[in-house]
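Researcher: Checking consistency across runs. Here is DUF262 domain-containing protein again:
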Amino acid sequence: MDGQQRTTTLMLLLKAMHAKLLRENNGKMQRLLDNIASCLWEIDGVTGEPNPTKPHLISHAISGDKHQILQNILEKGLDQDEEQDSSNYEKNYRYFCARLDEFTAEHPTTFHNLCLCVLHSCIVLSVECGGSASEDDRLEYALRVFNTLNTRGLPLNDTDIFKSVIFSSRSGQEREAFIEQWQELEQECEIDYLFRLCMHVLRARNGEKSREIGLRPFFYSKHRNLLKDGSIMQEIATMREYWYSSKVHSKRSHRAHQFYDVLWTLESGYWQFLDGAYFAYCQQKGKDYFEGLEEVLMRTCAHFLVYTISRHSGQIKDLVYNAYTSLYKTGSIDFKAESQEILQSVVTTQRSEYTFRTFFEAAQTKRLTKALLALNMYLKYPEQDTEVCDKPEIEHIFPKKWQTNYVKLDKKEANALVESIGNKILLEKPLNIKASNGYFDAKKPKYAKSKFLEAQDLAKLPQSDWLPNDIKARTEEIYQRLYAFFKEYAV
């Protein structure tokens, strides 16, 4: 269940101590050598001689070649140059040898006391849950014991538990192949996230629309059979292809990448679980994932934004659950959303009435503003490149700070205009810094250097000033464009 790394590290330290004592043995430290040897290897009952070919430590959680490296170190140490080291076992063993040499140089008469301290103070306590209980119950007991004793340490990772269940259900060459597969996943992927994607695929397939639960209760308690029979690894492979494959990424259309760009900007990342379930569904049914992808992304964008703007973002998860379960049940995506009603409704409170336009104009959060600006830009300029820069900044065309003799505005009215969406564009950070609080005519040369087409078009305007009427006109233009998009795709 746990302790492999610490136990292995302790054995490497003991082996380094034994090797050093063996080199410097003057006949007075044989008892110390024997005590360390008994920790490392089996001892012949007749001769009392250690058998280095039979170490106490045998790891079942590493691949064959790495296991052989560890066994070679425990048997005979290292007889190679440092440049030939290929594993952390060799590097760590060499580290211990170097530190022990340093300690001896500084404290030449107390090295044997250090060895005794390690022998007397380090206790390896094996806690095994056995008895007549089933293997599943014993694993459950082991987890309970670990969590009880581990109150001050890092919690056991969910995927470590899944790995243990999958590994224990395999044998021989299957175990070795699984370890290699798992190590490759650890190096290249975020395994926890792949399991979460798989969880939503399984929820979609099984028609589960209830609240999402943690990975451990979902896989370990509800779907442990997928771990024990190893079929979960096929699901993981599918999600790995979806999330990490450069081939899949490159086959997505330019338009699809634009809508991904908008979705990435939003607070909720639940669109990823719908997209992942859609990918898995197409794989399972032999359908072309890329053919309908643009429409799926546009509908997802529309619903997510309508619900976020109207302050119903807490219901977005339910939209995703409805969408992916309906996909597996009927073959088509049904968000069961009320987006069209939201677009036309009037919310009445004691103080005032709120329409969708009211909520739209009040949308001030940075992430939502960026998403709306990006969507407007891609709708207006379908040829706009994505990934222009890592993190585009929000540029205020009419500056936040202005001289009162430049334009006469009431402060409250001015702040509303300055922060309205019609006064904002996306701009690369270096250009945004250079544009700063300059006026429109001074900003235009900076806009002209931008890779954002909207900024380039602003730079081409003949006017020298950007005034309140310009802001109001652009706000109206953006609202009408986005509203038309929501009406068409929030279905």
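Researcher: Does this match what you'd expect to see?
Model: One thing to look at in this run: The chain has four domains: 1-121, 157-244, 247-362, 366-490.
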